[in-house]
Amino acid sequence: MVVSREQFGVVRGVAVAAAVLLGVTAYCLTQQAAYEPKDRLMLWLKWNAPKAACLWWHIWRIGNYRFSSPTDIMGAGLSTNPTPQIKLMQAMLQNTLEQTVLAALVHGAFAALAPPQWLVLVPAYTLLFVAGRVLFVALYQHGAPARAPGFALTSLPTTVMLLGSCWLLLKDPW
Question: Where in or outside the cell (predicted)?
Answer without folding.
Answer: Membrane
